[in-house]
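Feature request, filed as a ticket because there's no other form

It would be nice if the structure record came with a short human-readable summary line next to the tokens. Right now we just get the raw output. Example of a typical job, pasted below so the devs can see what we mean:
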Amino acid sequence: MVELLVFGVMALVAIGSALAMLLSRNTVHAALFLVMNFVTVSLIYLILGAPFIALAQISVYAGAIMILFLFVIMLLGSEKLPAAEPLRAHRPLALLVGLIFLAELAMAVTYRAGIIVAPPAPTDTFTSPAALGLALFHSYALPFEITSIILLAALVGAVLLTKKEPKV
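Raw output as currently delivered:
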């Protein structure tokens, strides 16, 4: 019962952060909501007994890809901050997000301490990095290469969009 409750809370936070990302008018805030979504999904992976996938979710998506997104947002200069932003209206939202984060942190700590019963552990070959690497580079080598080419094309496109033409 407790596992279902923890999963439900994390699922609601993941859905809420995804909706907030979609409805946010500020691109930097949308990127931060996306980071929150990535972290919540990685906590769900951790609860489900897949620590390698959880670490990959954090390091690849919340780390590398979000840095690339923020880099492109800043290079394009689409965010022009107003002269005076009212911080008073942001405080309740910041408090709510902070409380949700603390609740998720407490749930993750209680899970790791053994208070919440874990699901049965998968076999060694299920989550081993060696099995994942073999599957990625043998069975899925072509989709992996296509994805890397698409990301490289996106990076080159972002650089070309922000390039200033020299004045003659």
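Something like this underneath would help us a lot:
The chain has two domains: 2-80+88-123, 128-168.
The chain has a mean pLDDT of 78.
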